[in-house]
Amino acid sequence: MDRPTGTGEDYLRLDNQICFSLHAATRAFNGVYRGALKELGLTYPQYLVMLVLWEHGELPVKGIGERLKLDSGTLSPLLKRLEAAGYVERRRSPEDERSVTVRVTEEGAALRRKALGVPRAIAAATGLELEEIQELRDRLHALAARLDAVDAGALGCG
Amino acid sequence: MDRPTGTGEDYLRLDNQICFSLHAATRAFNGVYRGALKELGLTYPQYLVMLVLWEHGELPVKGIGERLKLDSGTLSPLLKRLEAAGYVERRRSPEDERSVTVRVTEEGAALRRKALGVPRAIAAATGLELEEIQELRDRLHALAARLDAVDAGALGCG
DNA sequence: CGCCATTAGATTGTGCACAACTTAATTGAG
DNA sequence: CTCAATTAAGTTGTGCACAATCTAATGGCG
Question: Three-state SS string across B62-111, please?
Fold first, then answer.
């Protein structure tokens, strides 16, 4: 192999690790959630949507998208599946016919009670103390914010 | 709203944050990589596959899957696309006709040289020092390992 | 040798992420 | 008021992740 130069090879190795670790951690989380959410009949992204809806009661599609950073191309079919499952209702807003309001149904509210046990199981699965989880969360949040800014703003230098 | 009990509500909020932060950070990374890899004609998962192939020269599909924790359902079509792009070759192993060996082509090797600049750009985009990146990577690695173990082993207590 | 369990890949089907485009409603400038 | 720009959802197409299933090759055992 070429001798590491400090300009390419070792950076490449390092980057490999951080991005792959993130990728792997996300998929590992997905796997654990998949098991925990199976009996609720939710996928992990559906669970995220239900979390914001449980918190806010009802939101326009756009509002859900802003909170989860997802666009209509992802949300429209996902919400249809949640509606088909009976957990949410969608209806055009009377004030603005362009907007669709998503509301938790009674069945969706009942699901919330069943979901209350999930987070504790997940937290236990991580094997981390609350403080560690919080710290990691804060770092990831800051990292995502930074990356989003760079992505949108086309790379400010340093 | 129900008063937080310490058993459900606040855990739920916390878990929301950690899992969502991870989710959001991964997608933010994907977005930045998407931009950086566009001129190479690679997606981010394709880039990961090329990284392990650049490192090992040639590997069976199974070997790639072990390193990236991906199964044939994901890798088969992805490798076909990489082959169609001319970056890899696939051929049945003569010793074991069940196995398919994936090898980097000359064009794939040339791509590597073009890819050398990518990691530095990504590292810069994170706005983190190398030490911070390493620490975060280690934590995520440990977290993923823990979650994978729990997932496979169906939840040991504690 | 003949047969079955195992193994490696490929295939199929579902769901998510995202880009690009379409449709319909709303807003705003002239 | 009229028409162009904007906005909110939805639709389409590509690619990844993963479960389930299938095919073909291998290996082990009687």
Answer: HHHHHHHCCCHHHHHHHHHHHHHCCCEEEEECCCCCCCEEEEECHHHHHH
